[in-house]
Design a protein that fits this description.
The protein is about 45% helix and about 10% strand. By secondary structure, the chain is an alpha/beta fold. The strands form five sheets. A four-stranded mixed β-sheet has the order 1-2-3-4. The chain has a three-stranded antiparallel β-sheet with strand order 5-6-9. A two-stranded antiparallel ribbon has the order 7-8. The chain is elongated and about 105 Å long. It starts with 7 loop residues before the first strand and ends with a helix. The structure holds glutamic acid.
Length: about 500
């Protein structure tokens, strides 16, 4: 059970799209902070925008969080979507009665009011304010209407929103932001704002405060773009007599052109990176460094190390630049450090997906990985590296035909085939290969490209490609013989 000193942090995605890099970084920081402090990590689904929210998006985001290993202690369970924890429901669309109750409290205490302004009237006010050079704040004639009168109008069928009554006194709201330090908002920065729409749907600032307070959230870590919402939220906290959590607003993430990271910069969804063969631990490592640095400047960190070293006072307020080359380097470093059994487990789905047929023997797999992994930055890179050793019929292109049309080529491949055929053993070693190649050279009296290129065609179907001394030891004798036959026959 939690007690008052337990850290409780929440990640509160809106299921209106995919989980993108920025959201995943927020989730990671929340998770790391909860783990580091022995606190709780809560997942709350902010789905009050009914038109844009979908279950599909919610499920995908939850699957992405799971893939990243950012398991939540409380929230909707996945895939069952059941409330798990003492402060549910954890989907805002299931909490509408709670928001209505708190909105009524605010109305009853004179801190909010029913407002009957129509959209056209509000638009007109805005235009006028703009023309007069004033901030476009709503000036509602219903501010001081009695609750009875307002209720009577609603009973008669008039539509009303619940609008927050911003104190007209001139004061400053001071936020001690965990990332940005002291931020001051003048109270006249905002006009009376909507809490509940006439449909009963709450707006983000309102349900966020109600939920953060009722869910006993101690630290609100979120994107910088929410900083300007925070003054409204502070007003609501005060009006409801709730204790405020601590806030930390993460720096924005820029693309390499120093514009805000967006789809224009290529993949920004977590799922895209997963499909491109990034490892979750590498993705977390890389994201952690977008806005945080380890005390010793360590760049490659395991999840365990991140949990130990992470702290809020090392979050940077300067924008972070997303550098995909660095991301690949971080990925390659994690990938190459995996033991071969584990690396194979990660790579196998990509190889299967590409339709490659490869030996099931773990020794072969380990041997293949030790030669290929140095050229792999992502798991997807394995596909083209393994393709030449997949046991499928070769396909020969024009350059292969051209090579095989050279006068000596058939002779070379025949000699190669015979020597491989008479080799005793299943696989040639690198040395066996060099020896046999020398014997073919001698027997046929050819050298240079007239030697290497026909043999390469007989091994991989193409005169160019990866080094044969790497590939040949990964192809068993019968495959080598059958490929030589195919080269001779086409
Ligand atoms: N649903 C909001 C978002 O996805 C959450 C903001 C917050 O953490 O307060 O941006």
């Amino acid at each position: 059970m939690s007690n008052s000193s337990t850290v409780r942090v929440r990640f509160a995605p809106s299921p209106t799209g995919y989980l993108h890099v920025g959201g995943a970084r927020t989730a990671l920081y929340c998770y790391l902070y909860a783990k580091k402090t022995g606190g709780q990590f809560i997942l709350r689904i902010e789905d009050t925008d009914l038109e844009r929210s979908t279950d599909e998006s919610m499920r995908q985001q939850m699957a992405d969080l799971n893939w990243l290993g950012l398991h939540w202690d409380e929230g909707l369970s996945f895939p069952e979507l059941e409330d798990h924890g003492p402060y549910g429901p954890y989907r805002q669309s299931r909490r509408l009665d709670i928001y209505a109750e708190y909105a009524e409290k605010l109305v009853a205490s004179g801190k909010a009011y029913y407002c009957f302004l129509t959209d056209e009237e509000i638009e007109k006010q805005r235009d006028q304010a703009k023309a007069e050079g004033r901030p476009p704040q709503v000036d509602s004639p219903y501010r001081d209407m009695s609750i009875e009168e307002a209720r009577a109008r609603m009973a008669a069928g008039d539509q009303a929103v619940v609008r927050f009554k911003v104190d007209k006194v001139d004061r400053q709201y001071v936020l001690n932001d965990l990332v940005r330090g002291e931020v001051t908002f003048p109270s006249d920065m905002v006009g009376d704002f909507v809490l509940l729409r006439s449909t009963g749907m709450p707006v983000y600032n309102f349900c966020c405060v109600v939920d953060d307070a009722l869910m006993k959230i101690t630290h609100v870590l979120r994107a910088e773009e929410h900083l300007s919402n925070t003054v409204r939220q502070m007003m609501i906290y005060e009006a409801l007599g709730f204790e405020k959590p601590q806030f930390g607003h993460m720096s924005i993430i820029l693309g390499s052109d120093r514009q805000k990271l967006s789809k224009r910069h290529g993949a920004t969804s977590v799922n895209d990176y997963r499909e491109r063969g990034f490892l979750p631990e590498a993705f977390n490592n890389f994201m952690a460094l977008l806005g945080w640095s380890s005390p010793e400047g360590q760049e490659i960190l395991s999840m365990q190390e991140l949990q130990e070293q992470f702290d809020l006072d090392r979050l940077h307020h300067a924008p972070a630049v997303f550098d995909e080359d660095k991301m690949k380097w971080v990925n390659a470093t994690h990938l190459r450090a995996l033991d071969h059994g584990e690396l194979w487990r990660r790579v196998e789905p990509f190889l299967n997906e590409a339709g490659l047929i490869l030996p099931k023997d773990p020794d072969w797999q380990s041997r293949a990985l030790s030669v290929f992994k140095t050229a792999m930055e992502t798991l997807v890179d394995a596909v083209e590296l393994f393709r030449p050793v997949s046991s499928q019929a070769l396909s020969f292109d024009d350059s292969a035909k051209e090579t095989m049309n050279w006068e000596s080529s058939k002779l070379v491949v025949q000699a190669w085939r015979e020597k491989v055929q008479s080799f005793t053993g299943d696989y040639l070693s690198e040395d066996d290969f060099s020896r046999i190649q020398d014997e073919v050279k001698e027997a046929c009296g050819v050298k240079g490209k007239f030697l290497f290129m026909p043999i390469r065609v007989a091994v991989i179907g193409k005169p160019h490609g990866a080094e044969l001394k790497i590939l040949v030891p990964l192809l068993d004798k019968s495959t080598l013989v059958s490929r030589a036959d195919q080269a001779l026959a086409f």
